[in-house]
Amino acid sequence: MVSLQLLAVWNHRCGLSVFLPISGRSRSERVMQLDLLFHPESGPARLQKKYNDGEFMLLLSMVFLSCNLTGGSTDKLTLKYQIIKMRGSRGRKCSVLHQGWCGSRKIYPCILTHHIPSPECNFTCSMGYVNAECDACMCEDHVLHGMVFLPDNTPAAAAAVYVQSENLKLLTESDSDGGFRIPGLCPDGKNVLKIKKPYIVKNPVDKVRRTGQSVTLCCSAIGDPAPDQYLWYHNGTLLDSSVYKYNSNLVLRNLNIDQAGDYFCKVTNDAGSVKSQAAKLSVIASHEASCNPRPESYFIRLPHDCFQNATNSFYYDVGKCPAKLCTGKIDKRLQCKDSVAYCCSVSKMEVREISCSRYTLPTKVAVECGCSSCTEIKTTVRGRATAIDNGEPMRFGHIYKGNNRIGMTGYKGTFSVHIPADTERLVLTFVDRLQKFVNTTKVLPFNKKGGAVFHEVKLLRKKAPITLESSETNMIPLGDMEGEEPIAELQIPPNTFYRQNGELYMGKVKASVTFLDPRNMSTATAAQSDLNYIDEEGDMLPLHTYGMFSMDFTDETAMESLNAGKVMVHLDSVQVRIPEHLQQMKLWSLNPETGLWEEEGDFKPNKSTRHKREERIFLVGNMEIRERRLFNLDVPESRRCYVKVRAYRSERFLPSDQVEGVVISIINMEPASGYSSNPRAWGRFDSAVTGSNGACLPAFCDEQRPDAYSAYIMGSLGGEELEAVPSSPRLNPNAIGVPQPYLNKLNYRRTDHVDPRIKKTAFSISVAKPSLTTTEESNGPIYANENLRECEQAHYSAPHFRFYRVERDRYEYNTVPFNENDPMSWTEDYQAWWPNPMEYRACYIKVKINGPLEVNIRSRNMGGTHPYTVGKLYGIRDVRTIRDMEQRNLSAVCLEFKCSGMLYDQDRVDRTLVRIIPQGKCNRESVNSMLQEYLINHRPLAVNNDSGEYTMLAPLDPLGHNYGIYTVTDQNPSIAKEIALGRCFDGTSDGTSRIMKSNVGVALTFNCVERDVVQQNLFQTLWNSPRQRERTGIKRQQRESCIGQARVRGATQRRSSLRQL
């Protein structure tokens, strides 16, 4: 019999755990636990007992408890219980009824305040009391609530929950919703729940309002614990919450002009803070036009036979309306996001006739802009996931966004992901099912105006596993550069590995530790995430890496993943060449859901002599591996700048030739000791996507030493690398885009500067922070960190670096101008090449040429059957044939034509009238029999009287390679064209190729021969022609020459007169 003192409390607890040492028939003394469930208003309660250990228990014991009910006299509570004799394992239960009352009064809940442990227990507790097993502390007032999830974020039902101690103890199982409740665990620091900083899941969006109207800006974040404070800022100034009465939403009523500007929210919980993206609120006067009615200049390139003497160029200004937000019809309800978005667009167009050499070319010119509903767009990220070492594709890998699987890679590693409209930051994780590659998390930039962006995702190959003994101390080096010491080492103490259920693992361990060494330049593009973290103030700041490593531990059979307890990281201080980084070095881990790095711990200096080397100072950090995370040795870096880069269609570098959707990447180089201009490692990798005003890339910089930091910059579009402006034989500031003397200070060098055999697709610069006292450095191309807005809004004429596409023998002309890189430039018009901005259908026809020369072939596309467009031009496509690599006198071409189908009003179809015109002395030899039969059966049938060309009413059906027609539909025009072109090259309906297969899947065949002389110049005429034709030819050419010169002279005089005015 044991007497325990109990204290009555006036709450609604209905459970009590009593720990009683009792004598069993076994030799050792046993301890049992009784869970008494009291019902204050009812009679006797049910008693449950859990066996702790042993086979036999005492029968018919009597226990006496003292219970003080109301502070009065103490009565005796007698519980008489019977324990059933049974054999069983730990955790089996049996129910026993108790008898008796606490005097004549009702029983109230009681809490154990004093406990008599087993006599041999020496365990002590600073909080609570020792449990029955004498291996942990218990606190009756503390209850742990939790949830268990599977990797796909679904609740895990019936999951076993253990507490880790010398012997694993099963505490409970999760319910059908994955939830569990564990009472009694003390919050003594041994059972630690890691709190999570808040993360923004909804950012405020840009809005336009007139004075007197109202607006709502919304912000939302998640975290653990849930965020408990929202603060709103206007142009960097905190708004008074007592005045604006805001929470996660900010409501502004009766707006005035002064309230325009940038708004963002700051969210806080116990773990820290985070700031949202800034939203721009534009407030215009009630009588003011929300769009500038005058279009901006936008030049399109004309065909090669359409030179304009008036402008002395092949360009014509058709105008455009910038697709910026404007104010339209506003909902009466205040919403986080307007139900209909309004944008500035073309409200009036005029048809202009452009005179070309032998024909007139119609075009539509924007003459007035207005406010209308924005064009609906879709945004896509495409790419290819391949190994960094040899380009091996990750076949059929899984792609995750957070915990949700959203796609797979194909056989060649290709992927395509649709991006929801409200996405601000796209974080994707690539998981290789075959376990060849390290799980890779990438933050992929995309074009927020819509369209597709192509990314090459480089993957690090997993290191071959090594075998460890779990009972021994194990050392694993990090870094295997030839001729270099490891950057760091992992030290794994003995008995550190445990199974997923928490049970200690003893035996051999298969360990695969993969290290991304920044001393190896070729691995920079495999860097994960964008190396950013959130500081205490909630700002996103960059990190400078000294290496990333991932660890994969399994049992000997490689069937079960293992976790590891305390693991130490020894960082060799000799490898840290920047002295101030020694004090700032931290250990980080990557959060795959946010793509942000989270601090794991600090490093502390420690002298050590290991592996028979000289004594060195190592920085030692500790971590625990509880999940498959990537770890990083990083330093926060405060010296930051931005680099302005633009991309162009050609090396003419005209403003209208800028290309959007180009991925610009920058590799920040780590300076060697003494800030030498010859860096020894890379420290950071970043990417950005060009918009209508280029791109601004973050980079490390230094104001004192221009050569302290350097960077390599490269650009690509759809997987095609763009060329940088050359730096040899001498620098050309006008071509590079940066004036002297700042250009010399930046030390611009294209990669082939020394060796012309190297590719021309990148350049290096010294990232010299602009001096405040030097005027020519204040306007780019390098901007200080605080001047990001100036970088993003810089005028075209401001200094910047440039990339350009190497022009191919291909030309496109649309009567209604449209920039395929900017879906927002689409205009509602019956003559639009692409009638539907949400679905783009690309069509190609394959043409074979028998003849010794490459030939330019044109498709002229006009309305065929629609009453509004019949006889009117949609556009022109010119392309040059490609010689066959194996057969002489043979070439082929894949030529785009406008698909037949519905026009923009979706009311009636149009069979496009397509003329295929070889630009040479050619005769049509044959037409694909299946195509010919289809056209005959689907009338009307176009007339083909000219044997030097071919005319058809384009098919409505998506015919395949058997017809020589290739059709692909996609949400992005560039993707549709690229896929259709690849199939046409390959001559199949499902394959792709970049090598032209001239004899496969052909629709038309022409025989072409060399012309005698297309056009002779004056000297050829004098030399070759008979005397009679000579006089006639000379007079005609002289007359045409004089007329041409007069036109040029007259245009020059007119421009001179205008300048004088």
From TrEMBL:
The Ig-like domain covers 198-282
Q: Name one GO cellular component term.
A: extracellular space
InterPro entries named in the record: CILP-1/2_8th (IPR056257), CILP-1/2_b-sand_dom2 (IPR056256), CILP-1/2_C (IPR056258), CILP-1/2_dom (IPR056255), CILP1/CILP2 (IPR039675), Ig-like_dom (IPR007110), Ig-like_dom_sf (IPR036179), Ig-like_fold (IPR013783)
Where is this chain primarily localised?
Answer: secreted
Pfam families in the cross-refs: CILP, CILP_5th, CILP_8th, CILP_C, Ig_3
Q: Which UniProt keywords apply?
A: Cleavage on pair of basic residues, Disulfide bond, Extracellular matrix, Glycoprotein, Immunoglobulin domain, Secreted, Signal
Keyword flag Kinase:
no
* Localisation: Secreted, Extracellular space, Extracellular matrix
Protein name, entry field: Cartilage intermediate layer protein
Please give the organism: Pelusios castaneus
